[in-house]
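Person: I have long wanted to understand how a fold can be written as tokens. Underneath my words sits a plain record pairing an amino acid chain with its backbone structure tokens. Those tokens are not coordinates but codes from a learned vocabulary of shapes. I should like you to check that the lines agree and flag anything odd. The protein I mean follows directly.
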Amino acid sequence: MLQDERVPHADDAAREARAHQPHLDPAAMRAHYRAEGLLEEDLAPTPYGQFLRWFEEAVAAGLYEPNAMVVSTADERGRPSSRTVLLKRFDESGFVFFTNHLSRKGREIEVNPYVSLLFPWHAIARQVIVSGRAERVGRDETAAYFRTRPHGSQLGAWASDQSAPLESRAELDRAYRELAARYPETERVPVPPHWGGYRVVARTVEFWQGRENRLHDRLRYVRAGAGPGEGAVWTVERLAP
């Protein structure tokens, strides 16, 4: 073989393929938002009324899981963690979701009940950011919701020791099979004692509307009254984008 002759290598083909792909530069990814904005006079009297309006519009726009929200918590040392959870109920008393109380978020809420919720409705250039205090809902409310869950989801609440390390997927699947044998479709699955709901009582609720030239509208409700619910008093402030 001649000294300058080179044997093709698999890495060469991979490099050539990458060379023909467009460069994925996050800094070059730009979306142009809408011209229509959000004005103070167009807001509902309470953030829950305004959330209902936007939630209905998100559903009408065909967004995938518009009730998906990022729940952020922090431990006793202020170290944050986030995850996506599904909103299951909301009214003038707060935003409700259900989870394992022994999960990381459950443990963090027990020592630091102040949380943040983020609804990232990117497809319609909107966000809703809730800041407030999480409190457990009553067991009757938890049981009523648990009964509406599919049978498999009820079993899953028992099978998963949420946030705890697993040796393998097989371990989780085995636990589920054992529960399915114990509680067939014809049997009522009891509500796990370590599983339940949290209601986030809002202190502030921000409605973010994307605008042209990154001059977004940000209107934030701030609870001025002492208590939650229909008796709460809200003020509205505009934030710079």
Remarks:
- Residues 1-8 have pLDDT under 50 and may be disordered.
- The chain has six helices and nine strands.
- Residues 51 and 128 are 8 Å apart (CA to CA).
- Residues 47-60 form the longest helix (14 residues).
